[in-house]
Amino acid sequence: MSNKLNIVLFGPPGAGKGTQSEFLIKQHGLVHLSTGELLRAEIKEETPLGMEAKELMDMGELVPDHVVIGMIRNCIEAHHNAPGFIFDGFPRTKAQAESLDSMLASKSEPITAMLALEVSESELVKRLLKRGETSGRADDKNEDVIRNRIREYEKKTAPLKDYYSAQGKYKGVNGVGTIAEITARLSSAIG
Ligand code: AMP
User: Fold this and answer.
1) How many domains is the chain partitioned into structurally?
2) 71 domain residue, yes or no
3) Which helix (H) or strand (E) holds 86?
4) Alpha helix (H) ranges present in 1-64?
5) Mind listing the pLDDT tens digit for each residue in 47-59?
6) Whose CA is nearest to atom 14 of ligand 1?
7) 24 contacts 30 by C-beta, under 8 angstroms
8) Measured in angstroms, how far is the CA atom of residue 34 from the centroid of ligand 1?
9) Alpha-carbon distance 137 to 114, whole Å?
10) Ligand 1 pocket: which of 72, 73, 92 to mutate (most atoms within 8 A of CB)
11) Is residue 19 situated within a structural domain?
């Protein structure tokens, strides 16, 4: 068995994955891999990849699997001495989950657990519109785009619950409460 801690932080947009990642990183010294942040960095640098991704992101659609899989592969290789990773916003499709498993299997460092933050849709929309006032993210400002992101999640990402449950790795956590309360729930889920 590997002694590395590889956590997938799962949940719909606005569930609090980014906020709660910060605690997990500090607590366990994990390397944070957020495909959303990596893509926003590409957009800022105005790279061809960033320009292609921006159009899809602005509509609340997922970017193609091969794009995010390539990014994650590069990051895992760049941090091969890390005590473990926290995957935030990845995987979002079954193809991404299968690629991640095969990347980690080749290093004998499998996913330890998928921690899923559970939050109702009405609460998500409320949180994201509020975040849109300060985040500077175009995809947080428009309610139609927010609802499309939630639809994409339900259609393509939510089925990953079954994928990780079948491996005995899915752990649902109530994502409503204060930041500290949710942090405490995540801590006890990690054990
Ligand atoms: P996030 O910061 O995780 O909310 O991601 C923002 C946007 O980036 C998403 O709405 C997608 O358009 C894109 N994105 C981020 N991660 C992925 C992924 N793993 N697969 C496909 N698209 C992604």
Assistant:
1) 1
2) no
3) strand 85-88
4) 17-28, 35-44, 48-59
5) 999 999 999 999 9
6) 36
7) yes
8) 9
9) 26
10) 92
11) yes
**Domain containing 17 — which CATH number?**
3.40.50.300
The rounded Å distance from CA 166 to ligand 1 centre is 24
What's the pLDDT band for 1 if we cut at 50, 70, 90?
low
In a domain, 69, yes or no: no
Q: Measured between alpha carbons, how far is 133 from 112 in angstroms, rounded to an integer?
A: 35
Q: Residue 8 and residue 171: Cα distance in Å, rounded? A: 10
3-class SS at 80? coil
pTM of the model: 0.95
CA–CA dist 164, 101 (Å, integer)? 11
Bridge-based pairing state of the strands 170-174 and 31-34: unpaired
Residue 126 lies in a domain: no
How buried is 108 (Cβ within 10 angstroms: 0-12 exposed, 13-18 middle, 19+ buried)? exposed
Distance between CA atoms of 28 and 83, rounded to whole angstroms?
Answer: 8
The residue whose two tokens read 């592969």 is 73
Q: Residue 96 sits in which domain range?
A: 5-30+82-119+169-190
Determine which residue's CA is closest to atom 5 belonging to ligand 1: 36
Give per-residue pLDDT as tens, 33-88.
999 999 999 999 999 999 999 999 999 999 999 999 999 999 999 998 899 999 99
Give the span between the Cα atoms of 52 and 42, in whole angstroms: 10
Helix (H, G, I), strand (E, B) or coil at 126: helix
